């Protein structure tokens, strides 16, 4: 059961993504397969640019990180060792009234003060109340954290710890007639080979990280990395999520960019802080506005038993603050587990002490699709002054770097434009468009996030210069035809 938050901003973004060929509903002609998405011509370029940027910054540019690419299908024992078979569950609730199924934390929470009856609801991360909530809590209406309000002081009558969770309601029909929560494993099962019995059962990986852990020994033996060092991987992951929705935010098939950074146990805190900081800054470098990003360290009771610390990097999505990436100090849990279950050593030989040690691991786990949603939501701009919608993507991420447009379809302008276009194509993603008025052609490119436009006009015929238009400022300068590639390369870099 999927619940889409009705949110004007999200609807605008989803519709732009479809209109411009960024993202389509999967299997749309058959009515769609909910919560799976296809990336179209612009979307695939944006996705590649995001992944390339991560790979460049996390793997290529660093001397302490190597990459790998593990198979999606792995031995079932991997998931026993990792704890996913036993623990990768979400609490599932059934609504007896409308038969909806939802994750326990995705219900509608109805809070009430037992002293004065002040009440409010939290529905999919958004707070609603009959009274002016803002006045009392002085809080961000979209930043509703259910745990935060359980047992809090009443902002209305001042009662101490009198705000109780009164009831949990179905997010679909609002009924309180719900089943108890039961555990539901999120891994997709399939069969390996021609027989379909339990001996052939395998899982689609729910995260890429385990592919790194099981190859730990292979990687250190072949790459001769010295600690601290990391292994990075980008790849598909699958989770049979109970509640999906909010476009590509939570889907059943998605991609992750994960780094497992191996360190001496006593140094894990230092490296954990380092990676929280590095990763936060990475999003700033993608052009995300700082006021829309925050760090949310996990409280002790939220941590998995083996984790020493964990911080979510959150973005203020149109539907509220939500996780974009998790950075965690996982200690030696993963390597210990594989060591124990496989019987193979998962250790690092420390030359200084001449001993085999199990390194601790600091993990950075980011979603490709969530990064794309973040980048798109942050770039979306309605420029009322010029009556246009603009995706203010940084040039490096923009699917098309430059559009080449002849002002009119005659006087040899299309021929010159085509020659420039073909020249540019050798160096960057360029687009040629001669259909429709110049204003409309610009607007299409603004919506696609194309940072630069080259126009060939009558002056080009006279002096060989073209106009170079900047998407955001709308400033136009004239440059010589033969300087276009160089000027653009400089601007994009
Ligand atoms: P959530 O609680 O939001 O489902 P999670 O805490 O289970 O996320 P992790 O297991 O930490 O997520 O996964 C690491 C990252 O992978 C997340 O920060 C997110 O960017 C991405 N991710 C996880 N599940 C999904 C999903 N169903 N769809 C898209 N991206 C996902």
* Unreliable residue stretches: 1-5
Outline: globular
Strand order within the widest beta sheet: 3-13-14-20-17-16-15
> The biggest beta sheet, please?
7 strands, mixed
**Percent in helix:** 25-40%
Calculate the mean pLDDT score and round it: 92
Percent strand: 25-35%
User: Structural class of the helices, strands and pairings?
Assistant: alpha+beta
Distance between the terminal alpha carbons, to the nearest Å? 44 Å
Mind telling me the C-alpha Rg? Answer: 26 Å
Task: Work out the number of β strands.
Answer: 27
Count of DSSP H/I helices:
15
Molecules bound to protein: adenosine-5'-triphosphate
Describe the structure concisely for a colleague:
By secondary structure, the chain is an alpha+beta fold. It is built from 15 helices and 27 strands.
Key terms:
single chain; 493 residues; alpha+beta; seven-stranded mixed sheet; five-stranded mixed sheet; 15 helices; 29% helix; 29% strand; globular; disordered N terminus; binds adenosine-5'-triphosphate
SSE layout and pairings?
Elements lengths: L7 H12 L3 E3 L11 E3 L1 H20 L4 E3 L8 H6 L2 H4 L1 E6 L6 E3 L4 E6 L5 E5 L2 E4 L3 H5 L8 H4 L13 E7 L12 E4 L3 E3 L9 E3 L5 H5 L2 H8 L5 E10 L14 E11 L4 H18 L7 E5 L11 E9 L2 E12 L1 H10 L5 E3 L4 E3 L2 E8 H12 E4 L4 E4 L10 E5 L6 H13 L4 E3 L5 H11 L3 E5 L1 H6 L1 E6 L5 E5 L3 H9 L1
Helix pairs in contact: 2-11
């Amino acid at each position: 059961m999927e619940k889409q938050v009705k949110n004007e901003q999200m609807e605008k973004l989803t519709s732009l993504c479809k209109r411009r060929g960024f993202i389509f509903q999967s299997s749309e002609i058959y009515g769609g397969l909910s919560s799976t998405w296809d990336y179209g011509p612009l979307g695939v370029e944006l996705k590649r640019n995001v992944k390339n940027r991560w790979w460049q910054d996390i793997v290529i540019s660093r001397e302490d990180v190597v990459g790998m690419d593990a198979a999606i299908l792995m031995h079932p024992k991997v998931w026993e060792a990792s704890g996913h078979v036993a623990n990768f569950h979400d609490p599932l609730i059934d609504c007896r009234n409308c038969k909806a199924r939802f994750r326990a934390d995705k219900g509608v929470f109805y809070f009430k003060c037992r002293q004065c009856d002040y009440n409010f609801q939290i529905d999919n991360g958004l707070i609603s109340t009959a009274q002016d909530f803002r006045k009392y809590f002085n809080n961000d209406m979209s930043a509703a954290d259910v745990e935060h309000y359980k047992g809090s002081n009443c902002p209305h009558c001042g009662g101490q710890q009198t705000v109780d969770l009164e009831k949990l309601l179905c997010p679909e029909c609002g009924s309180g007639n719900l089943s108890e929560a039961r555990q539901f494993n999120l891994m997709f099962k399939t069969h390996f080979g021609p027989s379909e019995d339990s001996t052939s059962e395998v899982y689609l990986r729910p995260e890429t990280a385990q592919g790194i852990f099981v190859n730990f020994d292979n990687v250190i033996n072949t790459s001769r990395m010295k600690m601290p060092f990391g292994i990075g991987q980008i790849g598909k992951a699958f989770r049979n999520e109970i509640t999906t929705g909010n476009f590509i935010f939570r889907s059943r098939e998605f991609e992750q960019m994960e780094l497992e950074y191996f360190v001496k146990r006593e140094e894990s805190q230092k490296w954990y802080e380092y990676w929280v900081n590095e990763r936060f800054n990475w999003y700033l470098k993608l052009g995300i506005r700082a006021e829309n990003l925050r760090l949310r360290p996990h409280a002790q009771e939220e941590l998995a038993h083996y984790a020493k610390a964990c911080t979510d990097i959150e973005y203020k999505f149109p539907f509220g603050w939500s996780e974009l990436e998790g950075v965690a100090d996982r200690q030696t849990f993963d390597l210990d587990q594989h060591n124990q279950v496989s019987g193979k050593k998962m250790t690092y030989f420390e030359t200084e002490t001449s001993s085999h040690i199990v390194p601790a691991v600091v993990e950075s786990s980011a979603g490709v699709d969530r990064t794309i949603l973040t980048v798109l939501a942050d770039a979306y701009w309605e420029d009322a002054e010029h009556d246009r919608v603009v995706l203010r993507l940084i040039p490096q991420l923009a699917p098309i770097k430059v559009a080449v447009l002849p002002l009119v379809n005659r006087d040899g302008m299309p021929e010159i434009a085509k020659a420039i276009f073909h020249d540019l194509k050798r160096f960057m993603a360029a687009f040629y468009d001669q259909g429709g008025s110049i204003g409309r052609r610009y607007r299409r490119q603004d919506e696609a996030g194309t940072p630069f436009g080259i126009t060939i006009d009558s002056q080009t015929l006279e002096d060989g210069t073209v106009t170079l238009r900047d998407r955001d400022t709308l400033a136009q300068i004239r440059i010589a035809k033969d300087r276009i590639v160089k000027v653009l390369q400089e601007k994009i870099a």
